[in-house]
């Protein structure tokens, strides 16, 4: 007999990962699709249902944990997400419940990642930490005294939309200078065209280069690529130094594509964090890299949000 499992769905601006997870954090099945190919959210739900219904675990699913940008845990709605093509308010949890006939729990994607790290990842030993998701945008999930902070509307932890540069880059949210316009995969790519450098002319990177390729070019000695990474780490590390004054974390857990680019980037972020931190926080905050790799991280994190809710009900 197959034990009860959860379906985890992580809706990102570029891709949507989904999979089936047991209560120990084992990913039994996982796939991903391009989010951008679906003009309507119902089409995405239909596609996931089609693929999951063909697995042996379909009948054992007890519920669905969904992570999404601007996900409101109280309403089950995605609300005005700047990095998704579906605009306005999307009743995503209700759509999944109607299709699967199972309860669905929606979490902000970064909050889901934080719960995943706490239950299954590198934050098992921590009660005070912040997960920083570095993908298309930048999100954050905050744990204080062992509890996830969600806030009045469920949107606590929008660190990506704290403005770090006065009158800086235009953000998808409509404001200027938000952290995610600098410290994200999108921000790294924008730096290619928006940073001035004498090394630009001899660089191997160009406006169509991906963030991953920028890091690869830096490893190969490209001077301009290294300048971009240094610039990104400086802005992120400095911002994390300021954010420490709010939650006093033991660690920041870096999660997502930029985080998986290697220890060098994490060390640079740590350097600028220490350089800019209040004295009371210096040498007190760790920078950890998520141990939940690739799609597993998204799937575990979102399924974990369901398990976390059931644990808290006990």
What is the average of the pLDDT values? 91
The counted number of beta strands is 13
For the biggest β-sheet, the strand order reads 3-2-1-4-8
Shape estimate: globular
Helix content: 25-40%
Element string (H = helix, E = strand): EEEHEEEEHEHEEEHHHEHEH
Number of domains: 2
The share of residues in extended strands comes to 15-25%
Instruction: Tell me the quaternary state.
Output: single chain
CATH superfamily of the largest domain: ATPase, nucleotide binding domain
Low-confidence stretches: none
Looking at the structure, the CATH topology of the largest domain is Nucleotidyltransferase, domain 5
- Radius of gyration, in angstroms, nearest whole number: 19 Å
**What's the CATH class of the largest domain, please?**
Alpha Beta
Largest sheet: 5 strands, mixed
Task: Give the helix/strand class.
Answer: alpha/beta
Textual characterization of the structure:
- The chain has 314 residues and is of the alpha/beta class.
- It has two domains: 5-115 and 294-312, Nucleotidyltransferase, domain 5 (2-Layer Sandwich); 126-289, Nucleotidyltransferase, domain 5, CATH 3.30.420.40.
- 35% of the residues lie in helices and 21% in strands.
- The protein contains eight helices and 13 strands.
- The strands form three sheets. A five-stranded mixed β-sheet has the order 3-2-1-4-8, with helices on both faces. Strands 11-10-9-12-13 form a five-stranded mixed β-sheet, sandwiched between helices. The protein has a three-stranded antiparallel β-sheet with strand order 5-6-7.
- Helix 4 crosses helix 6 (223-247).
- The two termini are 25 Å apart.
């Amino acid at each position: 007999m197959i034990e009860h499992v959860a379906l985890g769905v992580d809706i990102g601006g570029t891709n949507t990962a989904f999979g089936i997870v047991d209560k120990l954090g084992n990913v039994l099945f996982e796939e991903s699709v391009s989010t951008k190919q679906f003009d309507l959210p119902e089409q995405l739900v239909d596609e996931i249902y089609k693929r999951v219904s063909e697995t042996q675990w379909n009948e054992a699913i007890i519920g669905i944990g969904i992570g999404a940008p601007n996900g409101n845990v109280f309403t089950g709605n995605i609300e005005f997400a700047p990095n998704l093509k579906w605009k306005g308010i999307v009743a995503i949890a209700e759509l999944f419940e109607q299709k699967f006939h199972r309860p669905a729990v929606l979490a902000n994607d970064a909050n889901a990642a934080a719960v995943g790290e706490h239950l299954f990842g590198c934050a098992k030993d921590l009660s005070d930490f912040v997960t920083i998701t570095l993908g298309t945008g930048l999100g954050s999930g905050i744990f204080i005294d062992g509890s996830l902070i969600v806030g009045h509307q469920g949107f606590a932890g929008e660190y990506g939309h704290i403005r770090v540069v006065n009158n800086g880059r235009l953000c998808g949210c409509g404001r200027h200078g938000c952290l995610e316009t600098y410290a994200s995969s999108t921000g790294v790519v924008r730096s290619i065209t928006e940073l001035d450098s004498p090394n630009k002319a001899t660089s191997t990177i160009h406006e169509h280069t991906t963030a991953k390729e920028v890091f690869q070019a830096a490893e190969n000695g490209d001077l301009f690529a290294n300048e971009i990474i240094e610039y990104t780490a400086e802005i992120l590390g400095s911002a994390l130094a300021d954010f420490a004054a709010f939650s006093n974390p033991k660690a920041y857990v870096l999660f997502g594509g930029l985080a998986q680019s290697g220890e060098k980037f994490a060390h640079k972020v740590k350097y600028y964090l220490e350089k800019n931190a209040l004295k009371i926080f210096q040498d007190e905050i760790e920078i950890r890299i998520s141990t939940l790799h690739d799609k597993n991280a998204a799937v575990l994190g979102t399924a974990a949000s369901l398990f976390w809710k059931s644990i808290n009900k006990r």
